[in-house]
Design brief:
Layout: H1 2-107, E1 112-123, H2 132-136, E2 141-150, H3 153-165, E3 169-181, E4 187-197
Antiparallel strand pairs: 1-2, 2-4, 3-4
Helix pairs in contact: 1-3
């Protein structure tokens, strides 16, 4: 009986040992598998980070290239700025002269004929300051020198009055007036008028 019991005990211990070995083996396999999974996840994360870095670097390179392109375009725009200002000034000047010329024509009442209208930017107004400084540096103005004919002296005065009230003009001077006989012995008044463009004059 004792030998039988020992055999059973040995068999039990053997089975326990085998079971423990299996458990240890499976535990080791599980630990290895978990380790591999953790390593794989870590590698995936590292790969994702590297890809993100590559994307950021590529976008940074694109942004840098765009910045260079934008700087180049801005430089081209800046280089054209003087030409744009010149063209804008020419356009504004052309509009100013055209508007003034229209007002010259509108200022002529019936009975006044305009013979010549010459524009100039070197006109001199009548001198009211007789000081030495004013005499050395006479002012220059833009405006028109107008030659015309009228059937009466009052019409010449009316023409000058209309020019003075026009928004484009400042000072208007009668330079000269001459009488002559026209057809059928009709008296004609020939006149020369200097009309200076206004610096700043609001439209009435």
């Amino acid at each position: 009986m004792i030998n039988v019991n020992l055999i059973h005990e040995r068999e039990r211990l053997r089975r326990v040992g085998e079971t423990a070995g299996r458990i240890a083996f499976f535990a080791a396999v599980a630990a290895f598998a978990l380790t591999m999974v953790a390593i794989t996840l870590q590698q995936t994360r590292v790969r994702g980070v590297r890809e993100s870095i590559a994307v950021v670097r590529a976008e940074s390179a694109q942004l840098q290239a765009r910045k260079v392109e934008i700087d180049l375009l801005q430089g081209q725009i800046d280089s054209k700025a003087p030409l744009v200002d010149l063209l804008r000034g020419a356009r504004d000047s052309e509009a100013k002269w055209c508007n003034a010329l229209t007002q010259v024509a509108d200022a002529a009442p019936p009975g006044v004929s305009l013979m010549t209208v010459r524009s100039s930017d070197t006109l001199q107004p009548k001198v009211t300051d007789t000081s030495a400084a004013a005499a050395k540096t006479p002012p220059r103005h833009e405006g028109f020198t107008i030659t015309g004919e009228a059937t009466t002296g009052d019409l010449v005065s009316q023409f000058i009055h209309n020019l003075t009230n026009a928004s484009s003009f400042g000072d208007v001077y009668l330079e000269s007036v001459r009488r002559r006989k026209g057809a059928k012995n009709v008296e004609i008044f020939e006149f020369d008028v200097q009309a200076l463009l206004a610096k700043e004059k609001p439209t009435p």
